[in-house]
Write a structure and sequence with these properties.
Blueprint: E1 7-11, H1 20-31, E2 35-38, H2 45-54, E3 59-64, H3 69-82, E4 88-93, E5 108-110, H4 115-124
Parallel strand pairs: 1-2, 1-3, 3-4, 4-5
Helix pairs in contact: 1-4, 2-3
Length: about 120
């Protein structure tokens, strides 16, 4: 029996326009055999959750460099819960946000130094 492919949604919520890291992670996960959907820039929490539902994803990856994660992550998590979506949520933050307490907002918060860290985490669980 063939193992089901992991489907990942990579999203850039809010007004943050820095998307290079999100694109690097998306490409690396694709290269490692995952199906990756990239939403593009400036998505609302509602748009992200709608895309997660429509694409039946296993993982939602949020790339937030603007510092708005304390508002956006809880909103996205609330909407996912309301829609009954049970997925892993990963927030890629910049180094300055690394020690912020967002554990109540997302399943895991990472400052990624290499895309293999994300792949390893997703394949381990």
């Amino acid at each position: 029996m063939e193992k089901k492919k992991i489907v990942v949604l990579i999203a850039k919520p809010g007004l943050d326009g820095h998307d290079r890291g999100a694109k690097v992670i998306a490409r690396a996960l694709c290269d490692d055999g995952m199906e990756v959907i990239y939403t593009g820039l400036h998505r609302t929490p509602e748009q992200i959750v709608d895309a997660a539902v429509q694409n039946e994803v296993n993982v939602v990856g949020l790339s937030i460099l603007s510092g708005a994660h304390m508002t956006l992550c809880p909103k996205i998590m609330e909407l996912l819960k309301k829609r009954g979506v049970d997925v892993i949520v990963i927030a890629g933050l910049d180094d300055g946000q690394r020690n912020r307490d967002i554990s109540g907002s997302v399943s895991i918060a990472l400052t990624i130094s290499h895309p293999n860290e994300v792949f390893g985490y997703l394949c381990a669980g």
